[in-house]
Design brief:
Blueprint lengths: L5 E4 L3 E2 L6 H19 L4 E8 L3 H9 L4 H18 L6 E4 L3 H17 L2 E11 L4 E3 L20 E10 L5 H10 L4 E2 L1 H12 L5 E2 L1 E3 L6 E2 L2 E6 L1 H6 L1 H4 L7 H7 L4 E5 L3 H15 L8 E4 L2 E2 L16 H12 L3 H15 L6 E2 L2 H31 L10 H19 L3 H22 L1 H7 L2 H22 L4 H10 L83 H5 L3 E12 L2 E11 L2 E7 L7 H4 L3 E5 L5 E3 L2 E3 L2 E2 L1 E4 L2 E4 L14
Parallel strand pairs: 1-3, 1-13, 2-3, 3-4, 8-14, 13-14, 15-16
Antiparallel strand pairs: 5-6, 5-7, 7-9, 10-12, 11-12, 17-18, 17-20, 18-19, 20-23, 21-22, 24-25
Helix pairs in contact: 2-3, 5-6, 6-10, 11-12, 12-13, 12-15, 13-15, 13-17, 14-15, 14-17, 15-17, 16-17, 17-18
Length: about 675
């Protein structure tokens, strides 16, 4: 019997416009999961593609004076190019204009018509061309606009003889399957939406329309074409070989994961598609998962309709321009930023500046700087050769915890959670270097402990690279090359739990920063919706901490800066504040919201200290704050001051008075 592959799919994307980082997010998630399962030794198959038979595609082609085929050919090529540029490694790319799909859709339709699950009837009602969705009179208000809040375009009144799919017959079987398979529809709250939708009553669905010259015709009735949503969903089985290559079909079907954004989940993927499969007596996919949207600062969805999301190729090119990184490193950086910034179960705000800030803090400061300074110290103290030392058990123990958390997060589609787990190790290793002080060990001649310390750092980099490989395939290989680990031929899951893989004595190349820091804070925002938009972007020094150069044992020098007068300094009001409360900010991993008392006044201050301090340990502490700083909004919250902290390799260490002093005391 053929071994079943792990089969994962994106939705097939409408080709009425260019790809953007919304569609890129879904595709990237599938690519990450596919790579993760391959690392675990599983055979995988990753499908994506384009939906090309829609009425709105036909009308979009008319507007630009092209034939539908010319129009879809160009956009399908653009999607393929965008995914290739994003380091996506899909195994198949299906287009609904391909003969294999046309053949499968016509066969699917014919079999259901023969069984009586598709029947002839008269349709009269409303149709939204933009959403390719039929609506009953009771669904539509007097304005005759699409009920979908994200659309609200004028509806068309349709009256024609159509074929209908007997969807109503599958309400109870669907509810039974959902109850018996709680992981079938995820996350849980979206499953509950589906149950409510079904319980409100499912009606039979019109699945053909009059042939206007574009679409898949009914095989023996060419005056009718098959409804695009009925046609599009079938791609998951036609790409798997159905109905002609059943050996391939057995190898792939049922799909292990259908992944998509939430707008096409309830009505189509969670009800219509499984009902269609039930009617044909085919197995249902194991899991259907819906994620949230990128939204703007107003909370509204960003996408093709708003033109509010950049093209992924343009965005990665912008990162390369700002950083001076290679194209491949810039692409992997964007992959990281997309998954790190998205709260996968819900909606997340897309903020261009936040992406660039996270690049500097996470990649340039935290990961890149740790790797670079480790390699520099190996070069200085061990002539650039991997030392033979014992890995610190406390660090390897943390690695075991991180590995479990990472694994659990990916199983639950919490991509940002998996990366947060990796950054627990990254943050710990930055503190570890400060605690161990290799430069002091070298000065004292404590060679054995120095070797173990740097060996621990090198193995930690290798483990980080392994865990980051599904997200950053090129950068993870660059990390291995940086630490002289070229002898590791490929990334395997088991290696993430092994802390003794490096070869002692292996030579390290000359260290080169993998993630150069963004220096020029004036940039050109990447293209949105295919249009170039120039805008000056300024990143506040308050939110981007400078990356340290590779330290030396005696480093005490600070960066040169322009001198100020005593009059300038006296304008700054530094005061002591009591921390009354501290809490994390949703969807922000480094920020804490502090409630502080400065004398008789209570204020809110946002501080990027979450990776160093737990909220509960801060309550009652005294800190120094800039009390007369102009308030500014971050994450929709007004921050009314700034605390003082020492910057130690990108980590914020709070400054406290030596003894308890009255709240509001001036610092001078």
């Amino acid at each position: 019997m053929t071994e079943k592959k792990y089969y994962i799919t994106t939705p097939i994307y409408y080709v009425n416009g260019s790809p953007h980082i919304g569609s890129a997010l879904t595709t990237l998630c599938c690519d990450t999961l596919s790579r993760y399962h391959r690392m675990r030794g599983e055979k995988t198959w990753f499908l994506t593609g384009t939906d090309e038979q829609a009425t709105k595609v036909y009308e979009a082609a008319e507007k630009v004076g092209k034939s539908p085929k010319e129009f879809v050919d160009a956009l399908a090529a653009e999607f393929k190019s965008a995914w290739s540029n994003l380091h996506i490694e899909n195994d198949d790319f299906i287009r609904t204009t391909e003969p294999r799909h046309v053949r499968g859709v016509q066969e699917f339709f014919s079999r259901l018509r023969d069984s009586g699950d598709i029947y002839r009837g008269m349709y009269e009602g409303w149709y939204c061309v933009s959403d390719e969705t039929f609506f009953r009179d009771t669904d539509v208000q007097e304005d005759h606009l699409c009920p979908n809040a994200e659309c609200r375009k004028p509806l068309r009144r349709v009256q024609e003889e159509n074929y209908f799919f007997r969807l109503s017959a599958y309400a109870e079987p669907l509810l039974h399957h959902i109850e018996e398979n709680p992981d079938f529809l995820q996350p849980d709250f979206r499953r509950n939406e589906v149950i409510s939708f079904i319980q409100q009553g499912m009606r039979d669905m019109s699945v053909t329309r009059a042939n206007n010259g574009w679409g898949i015709p009914v095989a023996d009735e060419p005056d009718k074409v098959i409804y695009v949503w009925f046609d599009a969903l079938i791609n998951y089985v036609t790409a798997a070989g159905w109905p002609d290559d059943m050996e391939r079909f057995q190898e792939l079907w049922p799909a292990d994961t259908h992944l998509m954004a939430k707008e096409i989940f309830v009505r189509f993927h969670a009800t219509l598609w499984p009902a269609m499969l039930m009617a044909l007596k085919l197995p249902l996919p194991k899991q259907v998962y819906a994620h949230g949207w990128w939204v703007g600062s107003s909370g509204q969805k960003e996408g093709k309709r708003t033109g509010g999301l950049p093209h992924p190729t343009e965005f990665s090119a912008e990162i390369a321009q700002l950083t001076g990184a290679s194209k491949d490193i810039a692409v992997d950086s964007l992959r990281y930023l997309l998954l790190r910034e998205m709260q996968f179960h819900g909606d997340s705000e897309f903020n261009y500046d936040n992406f660039l800030r996270r690049y500097n803090t996470d990649l340039a400061n935290d990961l890149g700087n740790f790797c670079n300074r480790t390699c520099n110290m190996v070069g200085r103290y061990f002539e650039g050769a991997t030392p033979d030392g014992i890995v610190d058990p406390e660090i390897s123990g943390l690695g075991t915890e991180v590995l479990a958390d990472y694994d659990n997060a990916l199983k639950e589609f919490r991509f940002n959670g998996a990366l947060e787990a990796v950054w627990r190790l990254v943050s710990r290793m930055n503190r570890y270097v400060e605690e161990k002080k290799p430069w002091t060990l070298a000065k004292k001649g404590e060679t054995t402990e120095l070797a173990s310390t740097l060996r621990t750092c090198l193995e930690a980099i290798r483990v980080m690279a392994t865990l980051l490989h599904p997200v950053m395939p090129f950068a993870s290989r660059s990390l291995l090359e940086q630490i002289g680990a070229d002898h590791i031929p490929k990334f395997e899951w088991r290696d993430a739990g092994n802390w003794c893989l490096l070869k002692s004595g292996a030579k390290l190349p000359e260290p080169q920063p993998i993630f150069p820091r963004i220096q020029d804070t004036k940039s050109e925002e990447p293209a949105k919706g295919g249009n170039s938009v120039k805008q000056e972007k300024k990143l506040s020094e308050e939110t981007i901490k400078p990356v340290q150069k590779e330290e030396s044992p005696e480093t005490t020098a600070t960066a040169e800066s322009e001198t100020i007068t005593i009059e300038d300094f006296m304008k700054i009001q530094l005061r002591i504040a009591d921390i009354l409360a501290a809490e994390p900010i949703p969807n922000a991993t480094k920020l804490l919201k502090l409630t502080v008392r400065i004398g008789e006044e209570t204020r809110t201050i946002l501080a990027g200290i979450a990776e160093m301090y737990q909220p509960e340990e801060l309550i009652g502490k005294q800190i120094a704050v800039v009390a007369n700083l102009k308030p500014r909004k971050m994450r929709g919250i007004e921050s009314q001051g700034m605390l003082l902290a020492a910057d130690v390799e990108g980590q914020a260490i709070l400054l406290h008075p030596e003894t308890k002093v009255p709240s509001g005391s001036r610092v001078r």
